[in-house]
């Protein structure tokens, strides 16, 4: 079954499958049942079986799923079998934290460049380029993804710069909604929004 048929809900769960399967491999576990994954993910075993039924890897009764094969299949579906070249724009506190994040190690992402308003000392071994060099860098390195960590008032300006230079996918940490062309994908990470939703859920928990 083609990946275009996957629901948004399943796509949102795939990184969790990927993470737990990676954990299993790291401790030498070679097979896993839908029940074991259900316990890990807090999703019913029937939902697990339904999710994994979309892929070419099938479980065997009494055995479960081959961890490595399932990991490789989900890696392929997520597009992580092909290395993605990434750039970070904004080398403040959040940008620095992302530069050091392990997602750039053995996860299919390669951090190619870091940019800020002006050239800065290296961060964790990465040179920080001035933002005026950004368009040329994108074209020279064929960068795939941009992560924006600039102040909200600069978010739209920087988004236009990276899109004009050819970027088609943006992870947006700016606290602003970006106005980009329809053929550009944006994933927003608005931490304050998440915190407010958490506050609402907390205040509306069933009371004893």
CATH 2nd-level architecture of the largest domain:
3-Layer(aba) Sandwich
User: Could you tell me the radius of gyration in angstroms?
Assistant: 20 Å
Helix share of residues? 40-55%
CATH class of the largest domain: Alpha Beta
Overall pLDDT level: 90
Alpha-beta content class: alpha/beta
Distance between the termini: 46 Å
Sheet with the most strands? 7 strands, mixed
H/E element sequence: HEHHEHEHEEEHEHEEH
Strand order of the largest sheet: 5-6-4-3-7-8-9
How many structural domains are formed by the residues? 2
What shape does the CA trace take? Answer: globular
CATH superfamily of the largest domain: NAD(P)-binding Rossmann-like Domain
CATH topology value of the largest domain:
Rossmann fold
Relative strand content = 15-25%
Low-confidence residue ranges: none
Tally of DSSP β-strands: 9
Number of helices: 8
Provide structural commentary:
This protein is an alpha/beta fold and 208 residues long. It has 2 domains: 3-77, Orthogonal Bundle (Arc Repressor Mutant, subunit A); 84-193, NAD(P)-binding Rossmann-like Domain (Rossmann fold, 3-Layer(aba) Sandwich). Helix content is 42%, strand content 19%. It has helices at 8-26, 34-41, 45-52, 67-77, 93-99, 134-141, 152-164, 191-203; strands spanning 31-32, 65-66, 84-89, 109-116, 120-123, 126-130, 145-148, 169-172, 185-188. The strands form 2 sheets. A 7-stranded mixed beta sheet has the order 5-6-4-3-7-8-9, with helices on both faces. Strands 1-2 form a two-stranded antiparallel ribbon. Strand 3, helix 5 (93-99) and strand 4 (109-116) form a beta-alpha-beta unit. Helix 1 crosses helix 4. The longest helix is centred in the N-terminal third of the chain and has 19 residues, at 8-26. The protein is globular, with a radius of gyration of 20 Å. It starts with 7 loop residues before the first helix and ends in a 5-residue tail after the last helix. The mean pLDDT is 90.
